[in-house]
Specification:
34% of the residues lie in helices and 18% in strands. By secondary structure, the protein is an alpha/beta fold. The strands form 3 sheets. It has a 7-stranded mixed sheet with strand order 2-3-4-5-8-9-13, sandwiched between helices. α8 (188-195) packs parallel to α9 (250-259). The model is unreliable at 1-31 (pLDDT under 50).
């Protein structure tokens, strides 16, 4: 009997250990969240590393004084998230987000309120039609003996073989149209992969620097951004680039690359901007965030954050052509001339 009792005691101890272990695995304690400390953490990091306070005339200290009294330790996470998201929205920057498991703050002021002049149904019905070529991320079609290339996102990789095919097709066309309207960006490398096939010499297109501290002048030295020509076949004829206010981030960089090419012309409306490279971090409660940590200027020193202008602006109501895309039509007219 005594031996049985000892076995029972050992068994109960084992079960107790197992139970404790299961509680730690399946029901972890929630991390301690000090709202005041989290608020200060976010505000301070943005204060030290955000790159456009001066250019946007933002008084970040004054913004802190407005939002700080709204933070209380007993507030629910949804209300707290909204306060932090609203504070970040004061930066008026499409590269600024706060991300939790239940929401993602964002700022779309760079295109809200502007006409986009991009009717996808019209473009596919009238220009691309049903027999367009799918060349990797590109949808391409011959339009009035011009090669029209529609590129929806710089997140989609542009590979060497894709550009090989574009260059090959240009043997049979009189000009190239690259449509990046409402392209929200992605990888700048994809823009360079396109641009490198449209030049036979190295081209300086912009300069860039990164924020290094809280001081107004705490930046790295300016570094040159260049297009390096591809070693293979290239197309060096006329290129029309179509943009609108929703062309953002990597699309703005690509548009600036095209501005450096003498045979290229930007047509439509200026891009939405997004000239800062985002930096990322995590708050003590696990929420993540990002904001612009660099500046990029064109060769005249103008910030790309506010968009790249076009050579031919087509935003007047009189520019519209019923049943046609007047950006594409203007590009064809220019290429023919």
């Amino acid at each position: 009997m005594r031996q049985i009792s000892i076995i029972k005691i050992h068994l109960l101890l084992f079960l107790a250990v197992i139970t404790m272990g299961c509680e730690e695995i399946f029901e972890p304690n929630a991390p301690q969240e000090n709202h005041r400390a989290i608020f200060e953490h976010l505000w301070s990091d943005v204060n030290n590393r955000y790159s456009f306070f001066e250019e946007k005339q933002i008084d970040w200290e004054a913004i802190k004084q407005r939002y700080s009294p709204l933070v209380h330790e007993n507030m629910d996470p949804y209300a707290f998230f909204d306060i932090l998201g609203d504070m970040l929205a004061e930066l008026q920057d499409g590269h600024v987000n706060l991300l939790s498991t239940f929401n993602r703050s964002r700022n779309w002021s760079w295109y809200e309120g502007y006409s986009l002049y991009y009717d996808e149904q019209l473009i596919y019905d009238t220009y691309l039609q049903t027999d367009y070529r799918i060349i990797g991320p590109f949808h391409a079609q011959s339009v009035d003996n011009m090669l029209y290339v529609n590129y929806r996102s710089f997140e989609r990789a542009v590979k060497e073989q894709h550009m090989d095919e574009i260059v090959r097709l240009m043997q049979f066309h009189d000009g190239l149209i690259i449509d990046v309207r409402s392209n929200g960006g992605g990888s700048q490398q994809n823009g360079l992969n396109i641009a490198s096939r449209l030049t036979d010499e190295e081209r300086l297109y912009a300069r860039q620097r990164f924020k290094t501290g809280p001081g107004k002048t705490d930046f790295t030295p300016w570094a040159s951004l260049k297009i390096t020509p591809h070693s293979g076949e290239k197309y060096l004829g006329k290129v029309a680039i179509l943009t609108n206010r929703r062309s953002y981030s990597a699309t703005t960089f690509f548009s600036q690359m095209m501005r450096s090419l003498p045979q290229a012309r930007l047509i439509g409306d200026q891009t939405g901007g997004g000239g800062g490279i985002p930096v990322f971090a995590e708050l003590p409660n696990g929420w993540t965030y990002r904001f612009s940590g660099s500046q990029t200027v064109d060769l005249e020193g103008v910030q790309l954050e506010f968009g790249v202008p076009v050579d031919q602006l087509l935003t007047h109501p009189m520019d519209a052509i019923p049943g046609k895309d007047h950006f594409i039509e203007a590009a064809i007219t220019w290429l023919k001339n």
